[in-house]
Each structure stands twice: as structure tokens, then as C-alpha cells.
Design goal:
- By secondary structure, this protein is an alpha/beta fold.
- About 40% of the residues lie in helices and about 15% in strands.
- An eight-stranded parallel beta barrel has the order 1-2-3-4-5-6-7-8, surrounded by eight helices.
- Helix 2 packs across helix 10 and helix 9 runs antiparallel to helix 10.
Length: about 280
């Protein structure tokens, strides 16, 4: 990544990115990162195609990439980017972790209470919304449950209830991950996405719908969900697989270059597919 002075306008709130995407009828890519190479590859790709972006890390990944180490890299990359970048905690499940992300400077956090009974999920998300308010940070929630887990387990997905989406929206969240038959990790069969859920909530919510489990969907599926109002699409597995596949041999510096390049290629393709190219 070339040397650049800090851009005071580049680290942005996810809320603003999604509002702009709604007006422009495109989606913003939310790209999961795990190390410096991931971060560099994402930023260089979105700069190359002039696309706004979200860089994120899930709480479950912090055992490998501790927040106190990776957060400063994510924030520094966003502040030096030439395009708008939000820094997001994905799948935050515990209040201490969410609080730490806010204190470090993340501009949005996700409260994932999807494994809880809906009433408990609602109460936890309301608490996170109160916690995030003094920081001005955006909040994402989840209704229904995205299949599998962020670490690739076998938890079954659950289709979101339209009424539950409306009740969660009343809290004032900015983004809502909606279970429509999507899943994290690698799809073992073509997913049957429930577009009807998106059709029913279209125009009823203040929050912007979010698609988790984007890796492995077809281009047509992406175009369809974007046309139905999806404004944030998460990509993780494709990034991590490309990065792992690019590393070969014992030359660590060659592996760094290859890893950055592999991530760049994945992210640039998605930014164009999501319609965010040229929107920065």
C-alpha cells in the first residue's frame, strides 16, 4: 500500500454508506479480514475501482487475530484510504467485546443474538444500541438465523419472521441481517433463497437489509437480492480461501505479495458485481 497522509473523510459510519447505497440502488461489500495482507488487499481493491467499503472482523475470529492488534491496523487503513471505509465488528456476541470495539474506534458493531429466543435477542440488541449511541456508531442486528456459524459449524438456519424484523427495526438499528436461507462458509448445495421475505419487508423498515453468507452465491442471486433492497453483503470465505491458496513455498515476502494480490482480485470482482464501483 502506497504511503499516504491520513484522510479525515475516509473513516466513515456504516449508516452513511448504506443510506447512499439505498439512494443509488447498489450494495456495499463488507469484507472480512484476518491479518495485514487481507486488509491491504481489500483497501487496494476498492481504491482501484473507487468503491466504498466495509472492513470487518467477527468476534469468533479474535482468537486468531486479537482485537487489540488487528483493530489499529483496520482503523489506520481506513483513515489512509482514498475511498470511504467503515470499520465494523461482525457477529458481536458479548457486551465486553462490543464495548471494546466501540472504545477502539469501530464505526459500527453487530449484535448477534440470533441463537437466543427472540425476546432475549431484542433485549440484547436494545442494550447494544444504547451502548453504541454515545459513540455515534451504527448498529446491525440479526433476525432469523444465518445457516452454519462464522467458524463453519453445522447450525441450521432459520427464516426471518417479517413481524420480528419489524419489531427489531423499532429499536432503531441501522442494518438488519435477515435469514432467508443463506449460510456462512461453503454451500454444499445451491441455496434456495427466500426472496419473498425481502419482498415483504421492502419499504417497511428503516434498517437496511444485510446478506451474510455471500460467498458461493451466483451472480444472478446477488443481483436479485440487491434489487430487493440488500445494501450490505458480507464476503468472508472467498477471501480466506483465495488468500490461503496464494501462499506456496517458504519465501514469506513472496507469500505476502501473493496473498495481497489474491484478496485484491476477489474484492474487486465483488465491488463491481455489487454495483459499488465508481460510487466513492
Amino acid at each position: 500500500m502506497r504511503k499516504r497522509l491520513v484522510n479525515p473523510l475516509s473513516l466513515v459510519n456504516m449508516r452513511d454508506l448504506l443510506d447512499a447505497a439505498e439512494k443509488g440502488c447498489y450494495a456495499v461489500g463488507a469484507y472480512s479480514v484476518a491479518n495485514m495482507e487481507c486488509i491491504r488487499g481489500v483497501i487496494e481493491a476498492v481504491e482501484a475501482c473507487r468503491a466504498p467499503a466495509i472492513i470487518q472482523i467477527a468476534e469468533s475470529r479474535l482468537a486468531h487475530s486479537p482485537l487489540y492488534l488487528i483493530a489499529p491496523m483496520m482503523l489506520a487503513a481506513a483513515r489512509r484510504a482514498s475511498v470511504p471505509v467503515a470499520v465494523h465488528l461482525d457477529h458481536g456476541k458479548t457486551l465486553p467485546c462490543i464495548r471494546e470495539a466501540l472504545e477502539l474506534g469501530f464505526t459500527s458493531v453487530m449484535c448477534d443474538g440470533s441463537a437466543l429466543p427472540f425476546g432475549e435477542n431484542l433485549a440484547l440488541t436494545a442494550e447494544v444500541a444504547r451502548m453504541a449511541a454515545p459513540y455515534g456508531a451504527a448498529v446491525e442486528a440479526e433476525v432469523g438465523r444465518v445457516g452454519k456459524t462464522e467458524e463453519g459449524g453445522n447450525a441450521e438456519g432459520m427464516i426471518a419472521s417479517v413481524d420480528d424484523c419489524a419489531r427489531m427495526d423499532e429499536i432503531g438499528v441501522d442494518a438488519l441481517a435477515v435469514g432467508i436461507g443463506n449460510a456462512h462458509g461453503i454451500y454444499t448445495a445451491a441455496p434456495n433463497l427466500r426472496y419473498d421475505v425481502l419482498e415483504h419487508i421492502r419499504g417497511r423498515l428503516r434498517a437496511h437489509p444485510v446478506l451474510h453468507g455471500g460467498s458461493g452465491l451466483t451472480d444472478e442471486q446477488f443481483r436479485r437480492v440487491i434489487s430487493l433492497g440488500m445494501r450490505k453483503i458480507n464476503i468472508a470465505t472467498d477471501i480466506f480461501m483465495a488468500q490461503a491458496g496464494a501462499c506456496d513455498g517458504t519465501d514469506i515476502f513472496a507469500n505476502i505479495r501473493s496473498s495481497v494480490g489474491a484478496v485484491h482480485a476477489v474484492v474487486e470482482r465483488y465491488a463491481r458485481l455489487f454495483g459499488s464501483e465508481g460510487k466513492a
